[in-house]
Amino acid sequence: MTRPLRTLLVGAGQMAFGYGQDPKLLETFEYPSHASVLSKHSGYVWDAVVDIDRTAGERVAQHHGVKVFSSPGEIDSADGYDCVVLAIPPAARLDWLAALPNLKAVLVEKPLGNSLDEAERFASTCRERGIVVQVNLLRRFCSEMNALAAGLNWDLGDIQGATLVYGNGLRNNGTHMIDLVRQLLGEIAEIVPIGRSVASRGPLPGDVEATFALITSTGKPVFGMPVDFASYRENGLDLWGTRGRILLWQETMKMTRVPRIDSRTTTGAGELAVDHSETIATDLGRSLWRAYDDLADAVETGGAVLSPIESALATSRVVESVIAATQGGPH
């Protein structure tokens, strides 16, 4: 590109920096944090991190040799930033857009808001200012997920239905998995609540856990359920096709295909043979790098990004509708 984007990282938490310090995560994720990309990507000049917890910000600054600030008012030459990475909760994000008057690009974490109104205000502000927004829904940048979405489905056949699991909150990880359903199976036409939601123990205040069913626009059912991260982590999707089954597991870092064979118990029938399954590793660990690549290209060429804010808003509408439905509200 003509010149790299001068970039400010707002937030010094897990996604901004901490995941990049986890040796176990680094075994499978080449780029687990924003800092791990920004410190190496030639399309960006990263020169500062901001966090209201100055100690957290200083850890990042010392590790990567960047400046550290605690608030918008401390930033020198705020009008010189082209790009901001918003790795903070939604409530303060509009303040950062206001503080950086010449932004060309934003990379933002989900959820877009603590409510649909908040998400739409954020999107509207970016739209009015002509800012290119990439929403960090990682599976939008994963080769295997995009191949599945394009129909290169490892002989899965026609999808009959699916089961998704998520943990640590519906607005948190539930957003990722509902977005993956939209990516692979299309838009959601109907939401069916199953029981009532309960408070989540995840990182987002006010988040909930809920069990539900989604019906896609082509009539495919998707059953969604939370799992307790105190027992184990999982954000996964189990796709049932007419010629096989695909499990996206270990938070979609692994993909297992279970083929259909002639039944070993009933003449003239078929079965899904788990003992004949094949597992591959996906390239999810490089997805964050691709998100940055794609954003820089879009700024340079004027093209569309892979995870645009309008698509993320559609996912937010589904998430908020699930919450309303499982709390007894309209949907």
Q: How would you describe what is shown here?
A:
The chain is built from 9 helices and 15 strands. With 331 residues, the chain is of the alpha/beta class. It folds into 2 domains: 5-139 and 287-307, Rossmann fold; 142-283 and 319-326, Dihydrodipicolinate Reductase, domain 2 (2-Layer Sandwich). The radius of gyration is 21 Å and the shape is globular. The strands form 2 sheets. Strands 7, 8, 9, 10, 11, 12, 13, 14 and 15 form a 9-stranded mixed sheet that branches. A hairpin with a 7-residue loop joins β13 and β14 (270-272). The mean pLDDT is 95.
Brief write-up:
29% of the residues lie in helices and 27% in strands. It has 331 residues and is of the alpha/beta class. The protein is globular and about 75 Å long.
Distance between the termini: 44 Å
Architecture of the largest domain, CATH level 2? 3-Layer(aba) Sandwich
How many whole angstroms does the radius of gyration measure? 21 Å
CATH superfamily of the largest domain: NAD(P)-binding Rossmann-like Domain
Return the domain count.
2
User: What is the SS-derived class?
Assistant: alpha/beta
Could you give a short account of the major beta sheet?
9 strands, mixed
Average of pLDDT: 95
Give the total of beta strands: 15
CATH domain topology of the largest domain: Rossmann fold
Query: Percentage of helical residues?
Result: 25-40%
Low-confidence stretches: none
Q: What shape does the CA trace take? A: globular
Percentage beta strand:
25-35%
Element order, helices and strands?
EHHEHEEHEHEHEHEEEEEEEEHH
CATH class of the largest domain: Alpha Beta
- The number of helical runs is 9
